[in-house]
């Protein structure tokens, strides 16, 4: 079975907190349940953790996304990279900061940031920003390879190729609360 890159929105309510906390996890495995140990170790002392959303990452922006052993792809895997962008924004009279997490294929962080500004989210919120800064900034724009879990980062690189079949449909999002133990059933 070939390895797949997964993007996971994890949640938990750490001790002493009043609301649920979230973080994004990227890892490589045969299946989503193969990531449970790495997800647990990525957020120590988080308490009861769960998954709110997950997806395999095999297509983004009209590109096929493959993970390959680092030894097979060398240092440079191509001109384009896969970026994770976390936009944040506000709405009038709403006590909330909204977030829009997206994957973008681009040459560099500046191009990924420019592309993020084209999203509907960016145009529908007051003071949209990449998290923690007003205005577009590079704080929450990361090459995915740089933020994969340690084991995945050491073993695998990401290779992007234009989808020869013209298919631009991205991977299905699996949405809904799942305990880690429920992942074993997938």
TrEMBL record:
Domain of life of the organism encoding this protein: Bacteria
A Pfam family that the UniProt record links to this protein: DUF1543
Record domain DUF1543: where: 17-67
Protein name (database record): DUF1543 domain-containing protein
Taxonomic source organism: Sphingobacterium wenxiniae
